[in-house]
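Before the break, one more example. Copy the sequence into your notebook; we will annotate it together after we see the structure.
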Amino acid sequence: MAKLRVGVVSPEREIWSGEADMVIAKTVDGEIGIMPQHAPVLGVLVEGGVLRVKREGESDLVAAVHGGFISVADDEVSVLAEAAELGSEVDVAAARDALDRAQASIEANQEDSDAAVEAKRARARLRAAGEEV
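Here is what the structure looks like once it is written out:
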């Protein structure tokens, strides 16, 4: 069966690269699933999204992805994230604390857009780590 070649990078580092059977990402136009022989596409990733890479015989690779782009061409998927973190690397306690602080700030000041972004990021980090949010 055909495979996808996948690379996930952020400005800080290469997050992951390897072969996959399917990639699922959330874009500003909705969730997109990429399988081998997918038509070329360029999408804008949402802030606070979760990327899922399905690999045969292995557990899914899950990452919190904060903005950026996904590009698909010739069975190659490139995820160029503004920031990203593998679910296995997430400090769950720190992410919960960040979410609590952001929610408190939002409750105190409904116009706090920085807190709204921080809340989205914290939720994504928790979902990537397999936590309920």
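The longest strand covers residues 61-73. The mean pLDDT is 95. Try to locate both features in your own notes.
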